[in-house]
Amino acid sequence: MPKLFIQAKPVLEKIEQAGFQAYFVGGAVRDYLLNKQISDVDIATSATPAEIKEIFPKTVDVGIEHGTILVIFKGIPYEVTTFRTESEYADFRRPSRVEFIRSLEDDLKRRDFTMNAIAMNRNFTIIDPYLGKAAIENQQIRTVGRPEDRFQEDALRMMRAVRFVSQLSFSIERTTYQGLSDHGFLLEKIAVERILAEFNKLLAGENKTEAFKILRETGIYQFLPGFKGCGHVLAEYEGLDTAGLKELIENWTLLVHLLKPADIDSFLRSWKMSAKQMKQIKKYVFYLNRRLQGSLNKIDMFHAGLETTLSLEKIFCVLTECPEEAHDTDQIESVYQSLPIHALKELAVDGNDLIQWSARKAGPWIKEVLLFALEGVLEQKAANEKEAIREWLCRCNLI
Ligand code: ATP
Ligand code: MG
């Protein structure tokens, strides 16, 4: 039994001693049955949040309106969620009201897929009213209940189905698959942030090629921001060997490169990316274009940084279908290490030096001349010493 469950067992026991039911549920139980590494265990209980707070001295309110309390037990946080039904799905997204209930079976019934609707008690006995274990054995993703009902209640479940294909290499059961084909349009009602979270998990999965194929064949992709009419781009992505692209940034860079949106900013904004993510992706896309025009020179490498340069090389190999062993990371690393400096602050001169030498007033010219000096140093036209740089700038009539 994984250590995380053993550590968490006393939490279940304490809740039961107080007269309530408590079970392990969700992804941890599924992953345990799959012999996969478990990252965190979730607990479902018949106790209400207020009752849980009375049992445990240390708790944090994280989603009390949905019935979730974080219980800190022996320094480890556990999400403890009251059994609930989700009634009145007003607009194809999250329930407008949750109702706390006392029945485990009804709580499992509101969960998305049968493989995620399995509970395990403190003796590690499995409670599986919706045949989730069989679905896991058959490697099948199927909704609890009728797919059309469940996708209409919460359309995000369609994206979850596809991201589980990518993560688990399962297939989607026939009627569930049909449900995806019929209800993709409901994704337009879902908050983009929730779609992005699932899409990012999809991109990080082992089987993303198959997941892309399902997005395309069910037509769901049409309802992802910026993908309308871009089925051919998905097909192109599927045709590439992207298995080596493990990082999110690498996958997003490749996608943006293939999609070629008219305006990258508005594309990324439509995905509700943070300013930081947008900046990073734009930087990668910029240097990928340079890489596609020829090897990155030392100045590019300096500005891109080693990590980015290596990632771009991987993307370049994916796009040009060269075998992974053909790209020489050692060579790139040694060129990078041989750069005389690796950050602008290591440059031996600064703006004050330039003002002194030229007797000119401060202005935008300083940045330009500093960049010129930087390039001179990187290309070893001048040593990274004050005097050498001054001479070089003089010779170029810049000061
Ligand atoms: P992961 O390993 O990626 O965390 P997970 O299955 O634990 O996968 P979570 O998003 O953490 O996924 O959700 C925990 C559980 O809550 C799921 O296993 C499922 O039972 C239920 N669940 C999550 N999202 C939904 C949803 N949109 N509709 C119904 N049930 C859901
Ligand atoms: Mg989880």
From TrEMBL:
Function noted in UniProt: Catalyzes the addition and repair of the essential 3'-terminal CCA sequence in tRNAs without using a nucleic acid template. Adds these three nucleotides in the order of C, C, and A to the tRNA nucleotide-73, using CTP and ATP as substrates and producing inorganic pyrophosphate. tRNA 3'-terminal CCA addition is required both for tRNA processing and repair. Also involved in tRNA surveillance by mediating tandem CCA addition to generate a CCACCA at the 3' terminus of unstable tRNAs. While stable tRNAs receive only 3'-terminal CCA, unstable tRNAs are marked with CCACCA and rapidly degraded.
- Protein family per UniProt: Belongs to the tRNA nucleotidyltransferase/poly(A) polymerase family. Bacterial CCA-adding enzyme type 3 subfamily.
Any miscellaneous information on file?
A: A single active site specifically recognizes both ATP and CTP and is responsible for their addition.
**Residues that, per the record, bind ATP:** 27, 30, 111, 154, 157, 160, 163
Q: Which GO terms describe its molecular function?
A: CCA tRNA nucleotidyltransferase activity; hydrolase activity
Protein EC: 2.7.7.72
> Catalysed reaction(s)?
a tRNA precursor + 2 CTP + ATP = a tRNA with a 3' CCA end + 3 diphosphate; a tRNA with a 3' CCA end + 2 CTP + ATP = a tRNA with a 3' CCACCA end + 3 diphosphate
Which controlled-vocabulary keywords does the entry list?
A: ATP-binding, Hydrolase, Magnesium, Metal-binding, Nucleotide-binding, Nucleotidyltransferase, RNA repair, RNA-binding, Transferase, tRNA processing
Question: What HAMAP family does this protein map onto?
Answer: CCA_bact_type3
Name of this chain's protein:
CCA-adding enzyme
Residue ranges of the CCA-adding enzyme C-terminal domain? Answer: 249-393
Name the positions where CTP binds.
27, 30, 111, 154, 157, 160, 163
Question: What PANTHER family does UniProt report for this protein, alphabetically?
Answer: CCA TRNA NUCLEOTIDYLTRANSFERASE 1, MITOCHONDRIAL (PTHR46173)
Cofactor dependency: Mg(2+)
Q: What class of enzyme is it?
A: transferase
The species this protein was found in: Peribacillus deserti
Q: Which proteins does it associate with, and in what oligomeric form?
A: Homodimer.
Residues forming the tRNA nucleotidyltransferase/poly(A) polymerase RNA and SrmB- binding domain are 170-227
Residues the record lists as binding Mg(2+): 40, 42
